[in-house]
Structures
1.
Amino acid sequence: MVLLGTPNAESSRLYAMTVTEGDPSWAGALAGVALGLPVYHVMEETVKTQVAPEVYEEHIALMEMVLEAGDIAQAVQEVRAQTGQGD
Amino acid sequence: MTQTLEQPVIRGVRFFLAHTPGLVRYGSKPSRDIARDATLAKAIAAHLRSYEAAAAYPPNRAFLGHMCPDTLASIPQPWFTSAAPGTRWGAHGEIMPEEEFYGVLKLCDAFDLVHLEAGFVKEARAALAPHPLLTPADLERLGTGFPEAHIVTQCGGSPPALPLYLRSGRLIGCMQAAHEEDTSLAADVLLENLTCKASAVMAMRTLLVQEQLDPLALPYVLNSGEEAVGDRYQRGGGNLAKAVAEMCGCQAATGVDIKGFCCGPVHALTVAGSLVSARVFSQVAVVGGCALAKLGMKYRGHLQHDQPILEDVLAAVAIVVSADDGVSPRLRLDALGRHTVAAGSSQKAIFEHLVSQPLDRLGLHFTDVDKYATELHNPEVTEPAGSGNVPQLNYRVIAGLAAMRKEITPAQVPAFVARHGMPGFSPTQGHIASAVPFLGHAVDGLRDGSLQRVMLLAKGSLFLGRMTQMADGMSFLLERNASGSSEEKQQ
Amino acid sequence: MKIQGKKVIALGERDGVQGSAIAACAQSAGAEVVLETTYCFV
């Protein structure tokens, strides 16, 4: 599976699409290549609950405060739904 | 008799911008994309700005000291639609048109690698003649140029010379390779290095003349850019610093390059400060040339949004660190922030090392720093390309850290960002965008009292070179010099 | 969705969460990190 650390909804959506259906925008190496990998963002609730709390606090907590965590989670969830991955 | 340490100060800062739409095609991203799809050249050409538009562009005006960066917050976006006219010279430097910059490139060419078309040379000579920082001896180095047929032949040669164009598409010369096989001496590498030299030279000359500094009194120059000057046996040999010193009349100087990705200039400033503090040298210059490879880096986003390609300027900086003169801002060498090997790469660890630790050492709060100068990339360049607003993100992390330390409440984060941060305004020229674009404004503010304390912090993405997974970072504080007299010393 | 026992590719970004930070989280959740990268876009 792929775990993303992208800082906003737009880049999260882009990366998520690239590792599932293929690069949706520019003609990169993964254009048209459907890897179909399960993809999550490290700040999603479903990931957070499985990470040791002190590790999350040290590495992620600050960025969770700073970034639009909700928008990012939604963007990646939408890609999963779109590509039939479910949650 | 014990000798106290000298207090280093930032004696002066100047910048240089060259508007080079004709060189956008040689930025790393555009050149690779054009090689795959030649039709892109036309789309790119259709989105290149005029010199007038680039000079009027508010972020460029902030970069050159026409206005302070905070003013950008009150200018409606997109900034590239701003109708206010521009001027060439700001308080901190000029923006030079490409027709003249190609001439400066030739002046800096010690190996006759730049061949300019004869008609263009005449025009460039006339355009450069009134320049306050260029001498008749400089203009002699332009030579007489070559017939256009010669330029065309060179561009078809083996190895081919790189054709040099203006925004209009007019062919005005070419850049030769210096060796048939050595990839470190290929035409594109040499063009990158020569533009770096030329832009740094102009920034340095601006500083020396406008701050009335005697070039003969400068013993040491540190260059802090990310270019690689060398040949196949020593690809990053460097010391572009000395080449710049030579072109600026610093006959009594030598120099060296300080390499640290985007963190180079901040590292170089701490080294410069340390040399002055230890009385090794009375003053040390720090320069940083441009990053040709970064022209048009985000062009796809701009094309997608049908807006001008904003990465059409090459940027350079020159700074002099000297002994305490009683008025210039003091560099606090006793409170440097360093991202150490053991620090770990989380944002929290990075900013704790760069911000929390130096402030703790001096018993200061986050709010005791009037302005933080972090990565100052113009968001109008990065947002259309999906790369977000880098300065704002950095400021929110600093504010977030202040909130984690309970120095402010989470609700106060936006106000902290507005008060202690600033809108991004720098061209995305790598090491140039890292903290130093604010240095001119910082020195002005710390001298006139509108600022008391400024922190410059920079980060470097060392992992890009594939030698380590680590990032790097360095920070220092500048404080208002209240001594009023160079005779006062701490006992 | 269980992370434990999975092979993870950590795609980090310098301005978001770095690859090594994601890797630390994945490892603490019992996964094996097979690729860790950090992108820098400026």
Note: Chain A has a mean pLDDT of 89.
2.
Amino acid sequence: MKFGVITFPGTCDDTDAQLAVGRVGEAVPLWHQDRDLQGVDAVIVPGGFSYGDYLRAGAIARFAPVMSSVIEFANAGGFVLGICNGFQILCEAGLLPGALLPNTSLRFVFRQVNVEVSDPNTPFTRNCPPRLSLPVKHMSGRYYSPEPVQVVLRYAAGENPNGSQDDIAGVINGAGNVLGLMPHPEHAVDALTGSADGLTIFESIRAAVGDRVATGTGEGQ
Amino acid sequence: MSDVAAPHYRELGLTDYEYGLIVEGLGREPREVELAMLSLMWSEHCGYKHSKKLLKRLPSKGAHVLLGPGDNSGAVDVGDNLAVAFKVESHNHPSAVEPFQGAATGVGGILRDIFAVGARPIASLDSLRFGDVGESAHSRYLLEQSVAGIGHYGNSIGVPTVGGEIYFEPSYEHNCLINAMAVGLASRDRLISSAAAGVGNDVVLIGARTGRDGIGGASVLASAEFGEDDANKRPTVQIGDPFAEKKVMECCLELLDRDLIVALQDCGAAGLTSATSEMISKGGVGLDLQLDKVPLRENDMEPFEVMVSESQERMVCVVEPRLLDQVLAVCEHWEAPAVVIGKITDTGDYRILRSGELIGEIPVPLLVDGCPVYDLAPEPPSAPLYRGEPARLAADASPAETLKTLIASANIASRAPVFEQYDPVVQSRTVRRPGQADAAVLALPVLDADSGAAGKPIPGIAITMDGNGLRAAVDPRLGATEAVYEGVANLICAGAEPLGLTNCLNYGNPEKPNMAWQLSEGIEGMRQGCIDLDVPVVSGNVSLYNESPDGPILPTPVVGIVGRLPDVRYAGSSSFAAAGAGAQIALVGELHPVRAGSQLAKLQGEAPVGELPAKDLELVCATFALVRDGVRDGVFATAHDIAEGGIAVALAELCIGDVAAGAGLIGARVELPAGLDPFGEDLGAAFLAAGDGDAIAALAATAKAPLQVIGEVGGERLLIEGLLELDVAGLAAANADGLARLLR
């Protein structure tokens, strides 16, 4: 299967995401100015500092030409995973509810944290163990939503690194095909670099795409 | 013609003698733009006029050296047709004035040096010094802001910050040290020179517009002592934009990948002047620069301002006219502005034209090599230069109390509160993060599902930065030698063999005899360390005039060393937990710990005076070989060298382990050899731990260095027989809180 990985100017974790999805499928680089998603089966909006994040994180990237294609793709049921800056972009683009506020410490934070899978029945978590060790690294990761949201991932008790509401680390949209999370599964795909737990998220997506192909329920590209 | 008043050149940092040389070289008085350019190129920062002669003494040749001093960055061969480029540079003076931007642009500048030779930056490290953060709110401010600045730049541009060191001493109160090191990776054949070539070729400026920021930074800030009016120097500090640099970096790397440019150089200190003149000097050519082509932030800038501005995120490249369109297209793709600002000539002159009018013309040799170099007049001080601090630990404190105080002291406390503000994992190469081993470890090949398949090794590099001002204050020569030994020991504990060294020599005013003595002794000591351990110096930087009205900084030679290890899967860890409960603890090497310049002496209020122990080179080399091979062969999962704080602190650190990653916290029971001061300091020995006792015994039987099993890993307490017994959780909490409480 093909994972599209978007690169905006200022994206940093795009090559990491390409390497990660390359372990379970084929990585297809997507450029911010291209509207063509090249027939990918899932889209990864990776982390980094798109456009420098000098405004609100993700606020400019949502206007990139590629994002209108991603919105169409998501609205048609395609799987979209936003990681860190990608999560911020998906919130800004309206594909996910809520917003990511500056960390309560007002500092950038890097930490290896334990994340609990509170919903194992999503296309993104179906192959995940109950608890994942993943790194977080961000300046604005404090999730906030005034409305109830569908939480898929939570920081383990006492490990919330940014003050996010109800320890929320990742949320999914109502249709269940767009997930955003602050921790970095693409930086947890090899025990040598700290953890391989994140790989299960990409394996989950592959399995979900495989099911769709098997049952003929396409995502309508 | 004499439109420059005589005192003006003195304001620009030139002496009467130097000005005379300029007039003689030009055959006339310099014009304003010429004088500005010459004063910067002849400043200490660019011209190294007080250190050049000494620096030549450092060994720079070695079997693995690909690029040495004089290039934008040094580079070593790491095998498999790969080259690793690395360099350290100081940004001390700007950071003392404006810590966030000063530190940020320090990182940005050193990264440009790395991609200027064609290497993609894959890691950065920082060696930092501040005043006593426990006592000084100003030093806490400098620490917080410079750490935030380093994170701002490194995190945003996507280069992992994988290591470094931080120490606090009162002498750095008004003159903090920010030494940034960057490491890059390239295929051997893609390393590029900065030498301009090809008469008629275009000179292209890529990146940011030129503004009034950083005017005279190199001469005004970096080449003079601090005085009373430093707030007024804030406009000389540059502002960093990591997003702009990210685009420029990707653009330059693609230009090199596609072989579209002849030469590349970054704009650092002294901006366009330094960048272009060094390129044409190396290439033995001339340049006609069209000043009005340089894109400006403010239209009314004077020619001299344009020429010396240190606006960040700018690169200069030389392009054959037939490839110009392709170059400009790549720049446009990456949204990196690019314009042709001049042409390479065969005149041997640097000519500046504005609207067709010649407004400056300097022979390139005068500009680049005309700066006189001075002999120092070194003189050892007749009395100690540095005082002790107020005592914080009673002389009769128990060993347990002493260890608890040491482990929580600002110089030894966990660095996690700082390192967790940096991204150490981006680019997916980091096998050992800060806190996990004595050196950072990065895999060289891209890691994928097939990595290490069928037992195939995964080669990597280990990187460290080290320096110890207290020890160098005790003995400037041996202290500098120790910095090399300590850096190499750190690599060895990770299982790596050193390939090359970069240094940053931070000293006071070299025009003062005592400071000149510290500097010349320091270079001699570093030379000795490099020769002893066979580590060539491939790049470096000198930062002088680190003085304030309160006095000079401690002499602070800092080294950054890169080594290679054959298989990162066997990289050593600095925690007993890596070897696990039941593992045998071995002490390898011979120590002669002394209190002079030790962390304990500091806490007891003693001045850094006394004598440092001499090193038995043969024994140290045998020790290093044993540790390196034992780690590489997988016998020892744990290796940690004994350094600051001495034996007891090293054992405590091994028990505490990598708290940040939730791995660690395991006890140990050891019996030290008789007569070893547990709190004195020396280098050249290490603690190892291995689960396989038979393997240790086998090694001990054949080892050329002393290796003795002194205890076992396990339980929840650190027990040093006859000395102390402490709960590891308590030690870990004290260690974690030591710096964290100052940063809240």
Note: Residues 309 and 401 of chain B are 54 Å apart (CA to CA).
3.
Amino acid sequence: MEQARNYVCTECASAVPSGHKFCGACGAGVPPEAQTLETRFFGALQMPGKARLIVVRGDEAMGEGLSYLLQATEHVAGREADQIPFPSDNWLSPKHANFLYRGEKLVVRDEGSLNGVYIRVRGAAPIQIGDHFMCGQQLFRVDATPKDTSGPEADQTYFYSSPRRPSAFRVTQVLEGGMDGIVCCAHEQSVQVGREDCDINFPGDVYMSPRHARIEMSGESLELVDENSQNGTYVRIRGERELSHGDYLFLGRNLLRVEVTA
Amino acid sequence: MIVCSRCSKENQDHYKFCLGCGAELPRESSKPRSFTAPTPPGGTPSPARTTNAPQAQAGRAEAVASAPQLEQLEIDPTPVEAVRSKPVAVEDPLPPELAPLSDETSPCPHCGSDVPENFRFCHVCGHDLDAEAFGEAAGAALGDGPAERVSAPAVAEAPGAAVARARLVLIQPDGSEGEAFPLSGDPTLIGRSTGGIFANDAYLSPEHAEFRFESDQLVVKDMESLNGVYIRIEPDVPIELFDGSIFRVGQEILQFEGPVAPDSADDGTQHMGSPHQGYLGRISLVIGRDTTGNSHPIPPHGIHLGRERGDVVFHGDGYVSGLHCRVHSEVGHVFLTDVGSSNGTFVRVSNESYVPQGTFVLMGQQLFRAEY
């Protein structure tokens, strides 16, 4: 005794091979659910190619550990967003960022937010003048060296400035509220950031590693190098950025981890 | 490298105490250089030292043309050049831990302090020891050797000359006194255009500053000069800083920037950034017109500045003392206090300032002492 291996016609009890729409013996229709054998996921979280965001450190109101499944095509995050809301973080614009699929790829797009979207640097990343990056609790901007304005006046009086050292670029700390804090001009070809014994030191920042990151100039271009810091170094994205499994993002005070099921 | 004589541990050159056993280390290497009016970065664009005799003379002729009261200087036939003698210490009191070591001392005739033999001036009261020696040994010898320098002020005060109420005594790079410039007019304009010892200082504006008397107080007015007039502040006396205040520590020109009120976007979003710990403002290094280099925010408890110690250090500037000055807050205002530096902390005069007797004044590349 054995079980019939295929659909059995309810009219004539003949076996109907899978994929047939009608019974070959009696012509009766095969119900749609029997025509295609679809295996479903227990839950939407298992859906392949769909990503989710896990709030690692988050908005006080929303709590940590929350996860958002990205199963639509676009998902807006922001202070007043419906899909991924962070209502109590005033560092987020009302509509801050959008997580969307381009084909199979998940991307994040900065929706013209005030404070931007930061992604954790894997090893090293190119960086340009004007770009922002984060280490620990600190936010920085990479600036160009201003033009030398110490030349003589029309009346041949020379400007008396502090001793100047040639510097290729500078790193400026950006304070909460938008003011500039520490400015450090590069001595040689790099500026190092950390808790101690670096060019810019934050002994009081418990999220900063002793040697956290550095900006380095090689040739004409700048690179942001994470020095295997515990909490990572984040760089502000320009426009749109493709995401992959294991990426970390800062949106305002919220740290999100990206998980993409293969 | 200093090897500790007690425990033989090797210590870095700037250490004062042994890292191994805490014993005091020899201090030779920690002694700051004496103050000169240093050559500015980028070199000296034109000869500006008053020790250049022909130029000084030429300048003097101009000065006479525009200001007849300077005539008395002409009496001094001495080339200014011969002044350089032994290297000396600054004549303001050095903090004890910075005083150069010398085995042999002799008492200062003026204040009685024990002065190392190699000192040109008493390190406590500033008394000119060479003048004393020459005066006693051979009064007739005035006119050659190091004592020439003394003759200039002597002539300026000679009976019969129009007596200036005050004068600016040039402090030379080695710390000794140079020419004295009488402030005979009221007011007296000083600048490159007034010639004399000012003619060749490319860092002075043509019309730089004006000195005048208000009752018996000397007052200096900055004539909107490019580089300003700096006055040395008293140690341990706090001077209030305002947004844009400029001060000088060693060769460094520093600007105080007051706190900036945070702004937010129209939609209520705040600017994100590093934690703002109630900063009082920032100290920035001036490296050009409206251009600053390194900056440091000032936390509520204030910051110290120095060559070796403090929150902001200037390792490369030998004119900065180990610990030089501090910027701090009292009752909601921000102050600058010199903490006993060797070469002093100078504050740029904002429009006008009193110049107390004996105050050091920096103008252009040159350092003066106001006497009246």
Note: The longest strand of chain B covers residues 281-288.
